[in-house]
């Protein structure tokens, strides 16, 4: 009995050791005499280690990377420590992906801190400098990220060639000071965004906190769920739902489903807008549903809801429990009156604060 107990006690620290070394610390591949102030570009050595390793822990200090970004691997987890940070070296490119999850599956990113080059960019062309890019990917989770100063979008979710992104989750994330959008969703199914903030977008339209905007009719927007999310102080929209590009190909009928619950905006130019279609000669349309529950739009510098015409609309839209500040209530009423000709769009339980 004592023999077996001794073996058992010996195996405990061994198992704990292997549990502790599951994540490979990228600090180990940095050259001798490496700096810890984010002033030297270590992209090449980091990428090589990522290619050759499994789960990764980033160094516990700021690291400079260039506009090649870091391409992540299928089936791996990437964890940032308390002082980890990736800083983008000023770029001349029209676009970049600091963390590239394109055409990937089963990736988890935790506690990422990314700083783009919006304020130091070397050129004036383009708008596609992304913090995290997720295109044509499946089963990607972004948790507790902090993303600042991207030349384009903080997070971009979309299609790659004919591949639609599926099962993408963003939780407890902050995106601030993007040049274009905090979060863009151009194509995806089963997209979930929870407990997150998207703020201070400015510089290049749309300049929204969240922009749900397909590029063309090959894109999909199905089972998009946004819950307990806020936007603030964006140059244009807090939340923009711009679906007109789904009608570009008149051979395809599209069906969408979007549910947004407990959404708030504060001090963006417009709290939210719904641009569902535009006058055209397309014979096809977009059907489906958009449901917004418990929405609060406060202190918007222009108006809480920006109206766009809804000719030939086939989408059922329900806005439930919409709260605005007292100064904006009349503007909201005017907008709702504009929507009244469209029987598919319903505003319910309006409140002032």
From TrEMBL:
Pfam families linked to this entry: Beta_helix
Gene3D superfamilies in the cross-refs: Single-stranded right-handed beta-helix, Pectin lyase-like
Right handed beta helix domain mapped to chain residues: 53-206
Superkingdom assignment: Bacteria
Designated name of the protein: Right-handed parallel beta-helix repeat-containing protein
């Amino acid at each position: 009995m004592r023999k077996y107990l001794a073996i058992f006690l010996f195996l405990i620290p061994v198992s704990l050791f292997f549990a502790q070394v599951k994540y490979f610390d990228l600090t180990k591949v940095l050259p001798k005499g490496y700096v810890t102030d984010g002033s030297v570009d270590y992209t090449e050595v980091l990428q090589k280690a990522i290619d050759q390793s499994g789960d990764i822990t980033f160094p516990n200090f700021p690291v400079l990377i260039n506009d090649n970004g870091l391409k992540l691997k299928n089936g791996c987890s990437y964890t940032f420590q308390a002082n980890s940070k990736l800083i983008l070296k000023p770029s001349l490119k029209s676009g970049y992906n600091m963390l590239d999850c394109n055409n990937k599956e089963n990736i988890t990113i935790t506690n990422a801190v990314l700083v783009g080059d919006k304020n130091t960019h070397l050129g004036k062309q383009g708008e596609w400098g992304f913090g995290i890019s997720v295109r044509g990917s499946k089963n990607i989770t972004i948790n507790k990220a902090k993303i600042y100063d991207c030349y384009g979008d903080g997070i971009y979710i979309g299609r790659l060639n004919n591949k639609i992104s599926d099962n993408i989750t963003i939780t407890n994330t902050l995106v601030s000071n993007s040049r274009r959008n905090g979060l863009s969703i151009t194509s995806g199914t089963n997209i979930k965004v929870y407990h997150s903030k998207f703020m201070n977008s400015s510089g290049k339209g749309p300049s929204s906190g969240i922009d749900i905007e397909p590029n063309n009719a090959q894109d999909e927007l199905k089972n998009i769920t946004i819950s307990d999310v806020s936007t603030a102080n964006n140059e244009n929209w807090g939340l923009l739902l711009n679906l007109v590009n789904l009608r570009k190909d008149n051979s395809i009928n599209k069906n969408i489903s979007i549910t947004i619950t407990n959404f708030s905006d504060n001090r963006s130019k417009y709290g939210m807008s719904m641009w569902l279609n535009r006058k055209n000669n397309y014979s096809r349309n977009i059907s489906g549903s958009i449901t917004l529950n418990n929405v609060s739009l406060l202190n918007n510098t222009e108006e809480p809801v920006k109206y766009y015409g809804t000719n030939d609309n086939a989408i059922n839209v329900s806005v439930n429990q919409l709260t605005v500040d007292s100064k904006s209530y009349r503007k909201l009423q005017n907008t709702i009156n504009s929507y009244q000709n469209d029987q598919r769009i319903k505003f319910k339980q309006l409140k002032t604060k």
